[in-house]
């Protein structure tokens, strides 16, 4: 089934998408998307949605199961508080990718903006995973409480794939960064280490899925090129409070 979003207000477009899913659509294509926001908001079930264009803020917010593929770029807040499902973006994405995400997977072929993975958390057996093919700006994984964040730095000429303040306030989960990472880029609450066998076994499976969804990468993804970041405490700011 196809929906043409050309000239349609985001409210009307989302009503059409929800109606199509309610009537049993399992494969839905949305053409000519021009910044309409909230696409996929709160959707449940095993539906595949393909978007041609650039969806606006909060794509897949509160989503619980569907798979969305974006043949283009995406704006801010992709996967905001997502419970389950998958979002695959073939271009770049904006700020706060995966904000408070509780489950599912987000794969972005290009780079993302600031504060990706902020407040990510594992929730009742759900375990979110975000893979960023390009670079991420400052405050990656800020206050992260669970899940996995991966930054690959593909096709980048920057000295590092990440900005500064990585993992600030982090108290759960894992961050894997490929390439150069200096201690000054990392929050004081974060420990830096090499990958062990279990880390690489899990990460290599995630990378294989990323390449399956987005195509092979022109890079040799080796275990030794990755750095693991983990929280040093589950309550990093405990001494700042009165209780």
Q: What features would you describe in this structure?
A:
The protein is α/β, with parallel strands linked by helices and 243 residues long. The chain has a domain at 92-240: Pectate Lyase C-like (3 Solenoid), CATH 2.160.20.60. Helices cover 13% and strands 26% of the residues. It contains 2 helices and 11 strands, in the order βαβββββββββαβ. An 11-stranded mixed beta sheet has the order 1-2-3-4-5-6-7-8-9-11-10, sandwiched between helices. Helix 1 (10-22) links the parallel strand 1 and strand 2 (27-34). The longest helix has 18 residues, at 197-214. It is globular, with a radius of gyration of 18 Å. It starts with a strand and ends in a 12-residue tail after the last strand.
Structural class: alpha/beta
* Strand residue percentage: 25-35%
Overall 3D shape: globular
Give start-end ranges of low-pLDDT stretches.
none
The CATH superfamily of the domain at 92-240 is Glutamate synthase, alpha subunit, C-terminal domain
Q: What is the N-to-C order of secondary-structure elements (H for helix, E for strand)?
A: EHEEEEEEEEEHE
Radius of gyration: 18 Å
Helix content: 10-25%
Sketch the major β-sheet.
11 strands, mixed
Tally of contiguous helical segments: 2
User: What integer is the average pLDDT?
Assistant: 95
Termini gap: 56 Å
- The CATH topology of the domain at 92-240, please? Pectate Lyase C-like
Number of extended strands: 11
């Amino acid at each position: 089934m196809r929906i043409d979003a050309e000239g349609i207000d985001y409210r009307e477009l989302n009503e059409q998408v929800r109606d199509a899913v309610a009537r049993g659509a399992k494969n839905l294509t949305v053409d000519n998307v021009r910044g309409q926001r909230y696409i996929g908001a709160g959707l449940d079930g095993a539906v595949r949605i393909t978007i041609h264009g650039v969806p606006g803020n909060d794509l897949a917010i509160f989503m619980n199961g569907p798979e969305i593929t974006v043949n283009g770029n995406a704006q801010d807040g992709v996967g905001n508080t997502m419970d389950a499902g998958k979002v695959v973006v073939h271009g770049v994405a904006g700020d706060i990718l995966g904000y408070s995400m509780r489950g599912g997977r987000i794969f972005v072929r290009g780079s993302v903006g600031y504060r990706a993975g902020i407040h990510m958390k594992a929730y009742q057996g759900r375990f979110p995973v975000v893979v960023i093919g390009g670079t991420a700006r400052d405050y990656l994984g800020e206050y992260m409480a669970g899940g996995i964040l991966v930054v690959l730095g593909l096709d980048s000429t920057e000295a590092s794939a990440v900005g500064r303040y990585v993992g600030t306030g982090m108290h759960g989960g894992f961050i894997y960064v490929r390439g150069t990472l200096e201690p000054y880029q990392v929050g004081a609450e974060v420990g830096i280490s090499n990958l062990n066998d279990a880390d690489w076994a899990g990460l290599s499976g995630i990378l294989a899925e990323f390449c399956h969804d987005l195509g092979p990468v022109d890079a040799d993804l080796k275990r030794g090129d990755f750095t693991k970041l983990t929280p040093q405490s589950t309550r990093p700011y405990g001494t700042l409070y009165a209780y």
